[in-house]
């Protein structure tokens, strides 16, 4: 790097630091930037109780434990609404100074398709930083022109969403993972100034068929504030359950797995391999209140052993046909996140 290039690099770095509060990031319910957050949208039906279907629990590094939100997930005052408003408000989606890409195998206004990875999420970033929101909600988020709209279909079941703020260079890594997952991009903008860095994203948004070097891929990710995450992405060529056949064996941990368990081809708890994947049956939330797995469309897992402190957020259900589809897991050893999710495990199905 030349002296002049180094000079401009530090000028950009100083500008990013100086205007951090104005930079694109995950937002909490006060509209303040946060490094990461997790929301758990509660199902409408719980054991002995019927709720609104739009209540949710919120967690970030500052709350330290689950907080029941005073807002609804279908309002712009919630964490997800405030985060996405950075794209929707003031027609920011027409800006040439940022990139966005939205994907969902069940997009709004289009029919569901199994031709793509079973994956849902979006990215928004500029030359400094941005966020990657991965979630489990079909028909979400809405097209930018329509503003923030939470789908009625997303009220029935439980849903989860993970938002992480990343610096610009981390999005190169994220896009490579999405190549393997092959999400269904239904709305994108990659301005020409970003094309040299994100030509691959442009091709993905155009649904270009691209070759893969392997059938799966691992990428280390670091948040804007230094939190470590690991992304596991499998293509449809890796025909196996991502939890049992890959991550549990690779990390040498038994997993307690929460995925939607209403499909006719749901996979049972698996103890045939050295490391086991055990299906969670009921989730216990603060209150206390329980709900059943078949009322929960979220996808997450925790290590059964407290020492491992592993938590993963995913795309795929433990379901036979989804072994044939692309999808991913984003995992962390953050003890705060692990404690919050491990405490939710009420009953699980042993082999």
Summarize this structure as a short list of keywords or feature phrases:
351 residues, alpha+beta, 6 helices, globular, disordered N terminus, hydrolase, EC 3.1.22.1, deoxyribonuclease II, deoxyribonuclease II activity, signal
Describe the protein in words:
By secondary structure, the protein is α+β, with helices and mostly antiparallel strands. It has one domain (23-348). It is built from 6 helices and 21 strands. It has helices at residues 3-18, 79-88, 170-181, 199-205, 242-251, 335-342; strands at residues 26-27, 33-34, 36-41, 45-46, 49-50, 56-60, 67-68, 99-104, 120-125, 129-135, 159-167, 185-189, 216-222, 228-234, 255-258, 277-285, 289-292, 300-303, 311-314, 327-332, 345-348. The strands form 4 sheets. Strands 13, 14, 15, 16, 17, 18, 19, 20 and 21 form a 9-stranded mixed beta sheet that branches. The protein has an 8-stranded antiparallel beta sheet with strand order 7-6-3-11-10-9-8-12, sandwiched between helices. Strands 1-2 form a two-stranded antiparallel ribbon. It is globular. Mean pLDDT is 93; it is low at 1-14 and 17-21. It comes from Periophthalmus magnuspinnatus. Belongs to the DNase II family. Keywords: Hydrolase, Signal.
